[in-house]
Write a structure and sequence with these properties.
The termini are far apart. The chain is globular. It has one domain. It is an alpha+beta fold. Helices cover 22% and strands 41% of the residues. The chain has a 5-stranded antiparallel beta sheet. The chain contains 2 helices and 5 strands. Strand 1 and strand 2 form a beta hairpin.
């Protein structure tokens, strides 16, 4: 099982703080998940997640969580935006993207 990096964990914590209605389900899913792959895009990153089957599902209308989540990163003037994507009710992709002025 591949664990979350400190940046990924910080992003997920910030997203959970914004996602009050879905928080308990997302926390449960993330406690039973691992990182399948990581991609550094040069302007951000993608971390593909694998959630253990049988975890409670998110509301089908919740395709993305973290619409307004930004974290400061040393050396980046505007930091990174963070989004947690889901498919079929399961978190499947953490996206970090650079923010410009």
């Amino acid at each position: 099982m591949t664990v979350f990096t400190p940046l990924e964990q910080t992003a997920l914590t910030a997203i959970l703080e914004e996602s009050v209605e879905q928080r308990a389900i997302v926390e449960e899913q993330l406690s039973h998940s691992s990182v399948l792959s990581r991609e550094n895009t040069g302007g951000g990153f993608f971390a593909e997640l694998d959630v253990t089957a049988g975890a409670n599902r998110l509301n089908q209308g919740a395709k993305t969580l973290g619409q307004n989540v930004y974290i400061g990163v040393y050396g980046l003037q505007y930091g990174l935006g963070m989004i947690l994507h889901s498919t079929g009710g399961y978190a499947n992709l953490l996206e970090g993207y650079s923010v410009g002025g």
